[in-house]
Amino acid sequence: MPNRLARSTSPYLRQHAGNPVDWYEWGEEAFAEARRRDVPLLVSIGYAACHWCHVMAHESFEDEAVAAVMNSRFVNVKVDREERPDLDAAYMAATQAMTGQGGWPMTVFATPEGDPFFCGTYFPPVPVAGRPAFGQVLEALSRAWRERRDEVRGGAAELLAHLGGGAAPGAGTAGGTEADDDGAATGARAGDAADDGTAALDLDAVARVSDLAVEALAASYDAEHGGFGGAPKFPPSTALEWLLRRHARTGDERALAMATGTLEAMARGGMADQVGGGFARYAVDATWTVPHFEKMLEDNAMLLRIGVHWWRSTGSDLARHVVEGTADWLLRDLRTPEGAFASSLDADTDGVEGATYVWTRATLDEALGAEDGAWAAELFGVTEAGTFEAGTSVLQLRADPAPEDEVRLARVRRALLRARSARPQPARDDKVVAAWNGLAVAALAEAGAALERREWVAAAADAAELLDTVHTLDGGDGLLRLARTSRDGAVGTAPGVLTDYAAVAEGFGVLGGVTGDPRWAARASALLDTVLARFRAPGHGFRDTADDQTDPVVARLSTRPDVADGPSAAGQSAAAGALLARAALTGSATDRRAAELALAGPLSIAHQHPRAVAWALATAEAVLDGPREVAVLGRADDPGRVALVRAALRSPAPGLVLAQGDPDEVAADPAAVGLLRDRPLVGDRAAAYVCRGFVCDRPTTDPGALRASLA
Known about the structure:
- The chain has 711 residues and is an alpha+beta fold.
- A hairpin with a 5-residue loop joins strand 14 (472-474) and strand 15 (480-482).
């Protein structure tokens, strides 16, 4: 009989609805039951595409005997980490503090109040390599709760004190001028966000930090295989964006070489889907050959936009292919009936990892015929021994075919995709996550405009509509609120976190710049108003959750804003980028100062840990570059306006902010952004104004001149 999770909107939780475990969702019902029975909480955290989450579920949560022990001695709580990133981050910090490592599935034993006293990740059904069996863990912790209660609670209190003490990394002391050992002074009081006319960042010092950070990053660069460090290799998306921006600002050829070397290695290896487009979650080896096959919206939205920036910096045909393949995959495989984008595709198909994606010589011949099959095997590296498991191979494209074979390659790819589509497919997590859809909106809008693919811009607008109509809520205090998730058009209960507000605001802003629809800039601005009102942290920067929507357990466990990037930007750096863009549109000194203050903490550790705060470095490149503000004025149907907008979007200028409009409509709209105001046409022709700090060059009607001014 289904348990409580059958009512959940989370596909991950619903995967466990048939377990014999008496699961609860996170909330007061579970806490009250734990208090009533005087037993601990067992909190299991994972996500739908997580391979080892499925393994532990099959081995333990579907086992009647194990479930009986769990039900009799604990109150069991399932959490979708994608739906509740605040809980995931808080318990992950506890897990890492206790064990020195973390990952999913995450298994946390906590008091009835939610305070953790024992943490781990995957536990096998029998002892393996020094790791205890899950049943042994259950027995030991249940006995400890019954017989050594004071010791257990004391350990939980000690862990809470450890997690809650001290300042955030790099935050410095409130009220003082901050400087790291290399002189990266912020030049501002940490808690002061007032418009007092002083700079929040010393730009010369920030430039020195960028120089030091690129040296530190280069020390870990894998010149042979691309990427940084050894196996496993995850896409270093935020670092790639920073390196491309740094090259655009400074001409640093080493930064460009590290970025393009990594991007090409990823695009040619097995982590890239050579048939269907998009990228897997990570490569298990150092050569990008064998992927972990789950495919995530978050990763692919980031890599799509970075691919556009790679293409516009180099003109690479491979970069353009990556962009086209990733965008088409998003629309084909992740788009929901409501017009947004689902969260992920599973790593497994019918319990076998990668079964949908791998090939043998025989399956190539079956799909293509003997002649094309042999050619494809040679081109894609399919061998008799195989590059994956059981003699199967992951497709790679280590070298391009001869130019005369390009049509053949396109035909072969189409045939392989048809054959693969007839196989059983991995499960899809249809949950719509606000932040990841915001990333997709920005990427598709920018890619569609730059590469003249109107259907991508239309898809971005559809996703933005769902975010605006389903995910945005009236907070009752004059502020716009975001819900973190929805599914089938029904909004979830989890409130948006800082990354949601920042990414959706960024997506709305980019869409407004691409389409010229002023509504999107207004909606982005409303979200950023909420960030400034509800997400301010003590000192400078931002908290990860709204001050009136922070879970009490999270509040006890996590008092430090998380400045470290994950697959995408950390909330603090993402918010800084969105506020910087609004400042460029409006001239707001308050926004500019808040953005710079938010960057101060991450930048103070960037020279030592550049990959951990790479988005702060990327945003700092925009600060150092201005950012460039481009206003394009012209009639809506004027081809000259379209050409100027396209030229601007093909510029590599770091963090460029674009606005466009009809001068008559701008004059009549009191809410029009300041960047567009008082900008006449030039001889009745569409004109572009390039500005920094609202100080503008002479307008131009020539797309070539605009490109040159933005180079």
